[in-house]
UniProtKB/TrEMBL annotation, chains A, B:
PANTHER family: GLYCOLATE OXIDASE SUBUNIT GLCD. The lineage of its organism: Bacteria, Bacillati, Actinomycetota, Actinomycetes, Pseudonocardiales. Belongs to the FAD-binding oxidoreductase/transferase type 4 family. It comes from the Bacteria. The keyword Oxidoreductase applies. Keywords: FAD, Flavoprotein, Oxidoreductase. This is Glycolate oxidase. GO terms for molecular function: FAD binding; oxidoreductase activity. The keyword Endoplasmic reticulum does not apply. InterPro entries: FAD-bd_oxidored_4_C, FAD-bd_PCMH, FAD-bd_PCMH-like_sf, FAD-bd_PCMH_sub2, FAD-linked_Oxase-like_C, FAD-linked_OxidoTrans_Type4, Oxid_FAD_bind_N, Vanillyl_alc_oxidase_C-sub2. Its cofactor is FAD. Residues 35-214 form the FAD-binding PCMH-type domain.
Length: 457, 457
């Protein structure tokens, strides 16, 4: 039997795709820089036993497996390797349990983030991780990349919401990690080792997450600054003031003008606006009022030209839309290539200045939006995809930005991951000892290099 | 040269102890059940380079190393093995950096938890993890066990506050994990793999922690219940109500009477009190008032005989003292043996009932105190240490409690660790695949089994 026949015998013919016209749509994620190959098959298992079967067959035949969720990734970590089997979790999309009294839920990896958020909201509960692609990315993909989002400044990233995992290992065995309790230290923290491992250590087949009480509808403060330094200073002062807003986003001049153009609105900022800061508080009632009052004051004293607060959720949503549309708005000017990095919160202004310089050097538009509350920035380079020269310049700008990041004491990826675009940078950031430890762990769990070989390191 | 001479040549003679009268005081931690041997030497390195020297010498000679902080552990994880070198971090007690603007600090492992809390408090900052031994345990020990405390219901455990580590590996090389930024996904989450690994994977020599804004002085609510079920119900309702108190502790009748006797006070509970619930809110102002009002109401509607709230911090401290003195208070009746486990929050009453049954069966006093907000309970068995029979019954009760815990969907350790007392239970909880993965990782990082062999698994 061929590989495809063996897979079909275990999973059913409809769960195995070999038609290149179809499999080609599974070749890559949303990162244009990352290389990708052509899979020999795409499999769509429905349960853990089927995942085990796929792993065992591929292990026996020495065929690499690339696990994939929705394909919304931005580092090529779920890109096909020539001749691989793409293991796509989209059919494993059941919410298996919502235990409201213990504030936890158990889900399969293919559940879409937004569907899950909506489901727990009906129980008055909240699943914080909210990557920008939350209306189509999957929880499994979020686990794989340790996804973040806009919530992180107050609620942390994916790993902070996960209690336990079920994982199919390279030998086809099922490993259960973690627990259903709030605390637990029985053995190594394997849960958090698998989270963010980008599909290189196993296939996650079930996820137990901790939920939070649903927060109050947020109030929103928007502030505009005529210099980047003043905006950076406002961020530092807000942190220093001991405030923990539920959202704190920054947009530079390029992002603002793109969003204004796209929304056909003025955002009320006028000319000469170098940066916008958007903050929310979901503390509710007096606490939220107080928090945003202080934020508004701090922004003013840091030199904001305009600072405005609303407690009307609809108006807040509208203000936030400017932030949310930036990537789409940039498409008017060309193809976008978004970078992902994190700097200490006090160094945000220096990063933005660095991006301005790089933009001038490469002659391309670079718009910076980011999660100012945790220093996680997304400089986005716009280029003409039909021009090899522009692509090369964009590629160089992408690297130049990371150079600045390391000089500021930052990290080369805050939430998108290493994947197939930052392996060299990972090596630079963590050094030879770090890489050796990575290889040792990979080798301990996946000695035949079955899962996602060549990704990350 | 002998081992001790070689160590002395590297560290200086005053940093190497071989006198058995002195080394004997380093043989074990605070857990009476755990076996321990006699070290051939105790070393007190002052910096990372000295730790590297110790590791290289011991690796060359095949002498096991047991890393140790203050010795406040409760699982024997830092107990000596015959002929080992105890690597004690007490001289590495510098706070290397407090970066208030980025809310982070860098410390050496020997810093005492309370000293560090006090140091950051001066900057208006807060380091949450607060194990009961916080006035003498060290941050390094907290990392090793992933320590918890009373803060966890709102602020999480040690791993939730750590950004990065410096670790000396079994080959003497220095590994840097993590980062100084809030977010970061560059590679596997090695930081969290080392946290809670109980000294089996390396020696932690530097720790970068995330800090929080100093919370408000807490308000306190105390409620007494005439049945355990009513107290358990109150916990479930508080969680279900969407409240996140900054502390939520439970005491059973045995704990209450011991504390009352010790403090020569009545706690105002009267006779027939089966359980006390203590809650705090550090949200400040109106928010705290509202939170504790709701908690008080919920307690009453769950059947509390008495519920009382104070916003006077001194009075709150006094009420909390009843909880804090329990272990000391129990010493009047004999030696205590405290267990550590975690159950889903809805199962706390069943656990307490189980402990009552076991107490009757073994004929020994079992007092239960615990962190009700996260289901992390500490049933404490009191026995006569001079009676072999009583010790044997205490030992059996210790295991019987864990049996109940697993039947309730709990975990065998919430914050004290596995160490040298729960290896069999770890095996039961995580199964053969889990153990195999542990061994594979241990073998990948410490192939000669140099660090703390025989502990955990």
């Amino acid at each position: 039997m061929t590989l495809a026949e063996r897979l079909a015998a275990e999973l059913g013919a409809d769960a195995v795709i070999v038609d290149p016209d179809v499999t080609s749509s599974y070749r890559h994620d949303m990162m244009p820089l990352a290389p990708y190959g052509s899979p020999q098959a795409v499999v769509l298992p429905s349960n853990t036993a089927q995942v085990q079967a796929v792993v065992r067959i591929c292990a026996e035949l020495g065929v690499p497996i690339v696990p994939r969720g929705a394909g919304s990734g931005l580092s090529g970590a779920a890109n096909a390797i020539d001749g691989c089997v793409m293991l796509v979790t989209s059919r494993m999309k059941e919410i298996l349990e919502i235990d409201a009294d213990n504030r936890l839920a158990v889900v399969q990896p293919g559940v879409v983030n937004l569907d899950f958020r909506n489901a727990v909201e009906k129980h008055g509960l909240f699943y914080p991780p909210d990557p920008s692609s939350y209306d189509w990315c999957t929880i499994g993909g979020n686990i794989s990349t340790n996804a973040g989002g806009l919530c992180c400044v107050k609620y942390g990233v994916t790993t902070d919401s996960v209690l336990g995992l079920e994982v199919v290992l390279a030998d086809g065995e099922v490993l259960k990690t973690g627990r259903r309790t709030v605390k637990g230290v029985a053995g190594y923290d394997l849960t958090k080792l698998f989270i963010g491992s980008e599909g290189t250590l196993g296939v996650v087949t079930e996820i137990t997450v901790a939920l939070r009480p649903l927060p109050q509808a947020p109030g929103t403060t928007i502030a505009s600054f005529s210099t980047i330094e003043a905006a950076g200073d406002a961020v530092t002062r807000i942190v220093r003031e001991g405030l923990v807003p539920s959202l704190m986003e920054i947009m530079d001049a390029s992002s603002i003008s793109a969003a204004e153009e796209y929304l056909k609105t003025e955002l009320g900022t006028g000319k000469g606006c170098a940066a916008l800061l958007l903050c929310q508080s979901d503390a509710g009632g007096e606490a939220a009022r107080h928090e945003l009052e202080v934020i508004e004051q701090v922004c003013r004293s840091a030199g904001a030209d305009l600072a405005y607060t609303t407690h009307d959720p609809a108006e807040g949503q509208m203000l936030l839309q400017a932030r949310r549309v930036v990537l789409t708005a940039l498409e008017v000017y060309g193809t976008w290539l978004t970078d992902d990095l994190c700097v200490p919160r006090t160094r945000i202004a220096e990063l933005l200045t660095g991006c301005e310089r790089i933009s001038q050097e490469c002659g391309l538009r670079i718009a910076v939006v980011g999660h100012a509350g945790d220093g996680n920035m997304h400089p986005t380079i716009v280029y003409d995809a039909s021009s090899e020269d522009e692509f090369a310049r964009a590629r160089k700008a992408f690297d130049d930005i990371l150079e600045v990041v390391l000089s500021l004491g930052g990290t080369i990826t805050g939430e998108h991951g290493v994947g197939r675009i930052k392996q060299d940078w990972l090596q630079r950031e963590i050094g030879p000892v770090g890489i050796r430890v990575h290889r040792a762990i990979k080798n301990a769990l996946d000695p035949e290099n079955l899962f996602n070989p060549g990704s990350m390191f």
